[in-house]
Amino acid sequence: MNRRREWTARAGLVAALCGACEKEVPPPPPPPEVKAAAVLVQDVPVYVEAISESRGSSEIEIRARVEGFVETVDFKEGTQVKKGDPLYTLDPRPFEAALAQAKGALAEAQAQHTRAKNDVTRYEPLVKKNAISREQYETAVALEKAAAAAVESAEAVVRRAEVDLGYTKVTAPDDGLVGKTEVHPGTLVGRGQSTLLTRISKIDPIHVRFSIAEKDYLFFARRKAEAGGTDPAREAPFELLLADGTVHPESGRLVFVDRNVDPLTGTILLEAGFPNPKGIVRPGQYGRIRVAVDVKKGAVLVPQRAIQELQGIHSVAVVSAEDTVDLRTVKPAERVGSLRVIDSGLRAGERIVVEGLQKVRPGAKVRALPATLEETATAPARTGG
């Protein structure tokens, strides 16, 4: 009886276990959702970029040319001045006295010359009549020539004194933007050296100096040779990117190329000029200058954030027609806004994951929601390699 009960209990336990085995297994989780977009294909200009510093198209240092005390500063700092506008006045009294003294010496020399000339005129008929010796006549002629030379010397001293007196009025030698004054009324200037008073910069056009790598210079040099001597860089329009990320509204042209490549840095100095009618760009500003040197036809572009990098290897997640993911190694190149040119590894028409990269694994199935590169290219990126 007890054995029958035991078998009955065992049979019930087996039946219970079998019933549990017959319950349905829960379905697998759905594939992760990601945003995928077809790569963008378009022609992309290739730029050469460099850090730049602006300077005036002409930079003039205003210096004291005579020694004296500054009486007045006749301009407002940081304003536009015209050629001939007064800038400084130095104490003119010592130079007026020197000029008066020089004029007195000139008058004395002229009187001596007149007397010597009269002597020659008076002696000339007398020497013909042998009324005086020829030696006396020749001495008078020599004295007349010496007196004439003394007059010329005195006249030169007067002109020099007039020039020095003129230097007490310091005027603008050209139009431009005047900087801060380095001296103030009462300052002694010009003693032992030509004291710097202020600077004037012509800022329309504004010039920008920058250096490019030797390899970029060689690229331009070869293009110039292929063009039969015409310089493509000089004809190409330059763009100036300011410190706040905006682009200067006027395009520039190359105006200067240095004679040599710097052996320490392997770069060559260039200068471009930009119209600056509103005077927004000032000397000393830093920015980035760029010029298009080529065009990549049918370039493949993807968002910068869609590119993963691991130990120098770049890859993107490609979504197949069956919505499975393949991590593809790519070779990125230039940046265009928030997009990046891909030189190899992708083809036109392929889809890549642009959002949700952390959810995908190679070979995994995903639920790809459509997106466009315009929708994903909202974050700005620095232009450059």
How would you describe what is shown here?
- The chain has 385 residues and is an alpha+beta fold.
- It has four domains: 33-44 and 297-376, conserved putative lor/sdh protein from methanococcus maripaludis s2 fold (Beta Barrel), CATH 2.40.420.20; 49-56 and 202-295, Elongation Factor Tu (Ef-tu), domain 3, CATH 2.40.30; 65-91 and 168-194, OB fold (Dihydrolipoamide Acetyltransferase, E2P) (Beta Barrel); 93-165, Orthogonal Bundle (Helix Hairpins).
- The protein has helices at residues 2-21, 93-128, 134-166, 214-226, 232-235, 373-376, and strands spanning 33-38, 40-63, 68-73, 80-81, 86-90, 169-171, 176-178, 188-189, 196-213, 238-241, 253-262, 267-274, 286-303, 308-310, 313-319, 325-336, 339-344, 351-355, 367-370.
- It has a 15-stranded mixed beta sheet that branches. The protein has a four-stranded antiparallel beta sheet with strand order 6-5-3-8, with no helix packed on it.
- A hairpin with a 2-residue loop joins strand 16 (325-336) and strand 17 (339-344).
- It is rod-shaped, with a radius of gyration of 44 Å.
- The termini are far apart.
- Residues 375-385 have low confidence and may be disordered.
SSE blueprint:
Elements: H1 2-21, E1 33-38, E2 40-63, E3 68-73, E4 80-81, E5 86-90, H2 93-128, H3 134-166, E6 169-171, E7 176-178, E8 188-189, E9 196-213, H4 214-226, H5 232-235, E10 238-241, E11 253-262, E12 267-274, E13 286-303, E14 308-310, E15 313-319, E16 325-336, E17 339-344, E18 351-355, E19 367-370, H6 373-376
